[in-house]
Amino acid sequence: MKILFIVPYPLLSAPSQRFRFEQYFEAMKKEGIQYEVQSFIDEGTWNILYKKGFVFRKVYGIIKGFARRKLLFFKLYKYNWIFIHREAAPIGPPIFEWIIAKVFRKKIIYDFDDAIWLENVSESNKLISKLKWYSKVSSIIKWSEKISCGNNFLCEYAEKYNSKVILNPTTIDMKNLHSETKNQNTERLAIGWTGTHSTIKYLEPIVPIIKELEKQFDFQFLVISNRKPDWNFKSLQYIEWNKETEVADLLKMNIGLMPIPDDDWAKGKCGFKALQYMSLGIPALVSPVAVNKKIVDSGINGYWCGSEEEWKQAIMLLLQNTELRISMSTAAKEKIKNHFSVESNTTNFLNLFK
What we know:
CATH class of the largest domain: Alpha Beta
Structural class: alpha/beta
Largest sheet: 6 strands, parallel
CATH superfamily of the largest domain: Glycogen Phosphorylase B
Strand order of the largest sheet: 2-1-3-4-5-6
Mean pLDDT: 95
Number of domains: 2
């Protein structure tokens, strides 16, 4: 069996790809499944994509991406399944998907882990968003043989257009990557958050709480991201995200935060931050939105925080209670291992190709 993965980004570069299907490649090999990956954005374009300037290089990178997609038509005959993650091209209508499904009659597995049918404009993507074709998501779902969704909210949307929908959660490799456990008996504690420049806005309501608590407690407030936030207060420590040191940097946290708004875009999120924290034995404090309530068992491996006072009280409780952090650490790892790990989901993922 041969599978073609049509994906937006280079291998090992984007979390949505790394934690949805790339980490299953070894399991596929063991089952005798051959695969090839074709990204739209090449490595050179990816390295400058979110940096200011480089307009001509970015445009050239997009043009090359479309050229690579056209070349795929000459090799589609070799594959049993075409696995499309999010979209075949980042702008314009779903021309490539239509040709694959309707002209070449190939079976598509369509995978997504965000509410990508909704317009989500940030400062970094406001120009390209005008060229997006958000309505194409429903069309691709209709043309696909199977739909792989990261949470129940996404499944419910997909089921409006196709009955062959599979819940395929984002998972963590606890054997080869997130295998360590945070020592919760550290001298100085750290509260932390990790994410990209596009999601750091969700952390802003927590900043006043941190500023207030740092007057009473001695802790670090770690922000791991690809862009330094425009904040300046005593406990703040910025760490530039680096794939090579990702796990080591996360392990500097005693408590992990994941605030998100209660809207449809947030409901499409798959709880990746909470999964990362908990897999390393870091209790997760999360907004009680969508899949977060399935990942975190409030009071056992973390807390649901729906108000400013709940965020404050949960942080204070964990800062003051070592034994509570240790018990939650153990429970957190167990929850991810049993329900959101590569090991627990491998059979489900491989069944996509049957």
